[in-house]
Amino acid sequence: MFKKISFIGLIAMAALSTMSLTNAPAVAEEPAEVNYTKYCASCHGEKVEAFVDRKWKHGDKKSDILNSITHGYPDAGMPTWKEVLTPKEIEKLADLIVENLAGVEQYKFANKPTSNIFKSDGMTIVLDTIATGFDSPWGFTQLPSNDYLITDRAGVLYLVDQKRNKTAIKGTPEVYAQGQGGLLDVTLHPQYEQNGWIYLSYSKFKMEDGAKVNTTAIVRGKIKDNNWVEAQEIFEAKPYTKTSFHYGSRITFDKKGHLFFSVGERGMEKVFPQSLDNDNGKIHRLNDDGTVPADNPFKNTDHPSIYSYGQRNPQGLTTNPWTDDIWETEHGPRGGDEINIIKAGKNYGWPVITYGINYDGKPISAISKKDGMEQPISYFIPSIAPSGLTFVTGDKYPAWKGNLMIGSLRFNYLNRVEVKNNKVVKQEKVLLNVGRMRNVKQGRDGYLYVGVESPGMIFRLRPQ
């Protein structure tokens, strides 16, 4: 009897077990974004939109991506995921990647310009050629006479008149014109008509232990009879390095007469930008004569000109004409170019936080936000390589008034940014494929001017 009951009990337990397995709920499939963060981000970076900005060795069509995720390329370090993810999860992950590829495709402008007339939202623009024959027209400013001062990165400061005649100014500092170095920005003192001061940024060099080292420097001087005279060096970034990139070097004045300028981290992100014992990877503020303002945030340190830190390579710096805030753009690595409002003493995070990844596709940081570090007003993925920055004022461009203009080196266009309450609300790509845009600036005459490379030219944007 006992054996019979036990046998029946075993049958009942087996039946219950079978029912339990049959009725067990299916494991929920994770959203593609969750799976990307869980399985992909450690190798490819936090932002999928940055990851997709690459050369696709095995193809970028959905079928190619499905194959790569499913079967992997183990010999190249890409594991197979078919034992971890369901076929549906793999398909959703491939869809996510293809969807983000559209963010890169939007910059592949099909055609070169066929005329000098360009259409924009609410504006038609005619490009007038102002000057030609430059290597890289890095800096631009307009004199009260309406003539122009233009720096060529190769090391020459030019005076260009209204008839497009170029005159090289003699006696400017010798520059380290290697890599990204050379003669860089130029701007006038706010009271130029009274004092005649002109400010230049450049890559300064010297010999140290038998090797040539260089840095970012700021000098001011005057022009008399086409000669650079009364030169006064008011800043040199320390320490010097052997690297030849990430100089920063944009210059702007605020309404109080303070001189702001950028210094890049010289490609040494693990050494300079997060430390206050050096000048690199920073925005600096000085009085017009190079002395330190009494309210500078780090005035009692060995580097008292530092105003903010944690910057990478800021090549856009301008003063908001309505608020007097200092606005900045800086290059990210692969993805993560930023628009920032610069605040005294603040840390802008590089390289602890970033929205970009390294050029080799590997993550730089696992995070893009951290307490005590400033978030950008906006950021670009993929990188547009921003250089030059200006606000549009006056009445010559009614549809653009109040907008922020940014040059794109990588994609050869002008980026128009509508800003409300310090937030980006709309962007438009203007002057498509006009050239590798090094600079954009509004002149004293109210017109916008852009400088492009390869070939080096300056254009005026004339509303039609």
Automatic annotation (TrEMBL):
Pfam families: Cytochrome_CBB3, GSDH. One of its GO terms (molecular function) is electron transfer activity. InterPro entries: 6-blade_b-propeller_TolB-like (IPR011042), Cyt_c-like_dom (IPR009056), Cyt_c-like_dom_sf (IPR036909), Glc/Sorbosone_DH (IPR012938), Quinoprot_gluc/sorb_DH_b-prop (IPR011041). The keyword Hydrolase does not apply. Residues 1-28 form the signal peptide. Residues 134-456 form the Glucose/Sorbosone dehydrogenase domain. Residues 32-95 form the Cytochrome c domain. Gene3D superfamilies: Cytochrome c-like domain, TolB, C-terminal domain. Keywords: Heme, Iron, Metal-binding, Signal. PANTHER family: ALDOSE SUGAR DEHYDROGENASE YLII (PTHR19328:SF75), HEDGEHOG-INTERACTING PROTEIN (PTHR19328). This is PQQ-dependent sugar dehydrogenase. It comes from Aquirufa antheringensis. The lineage of its organism: Bacteria, Pseudomonadati, Bacteroidota, Cytophagia, Cytophagales.
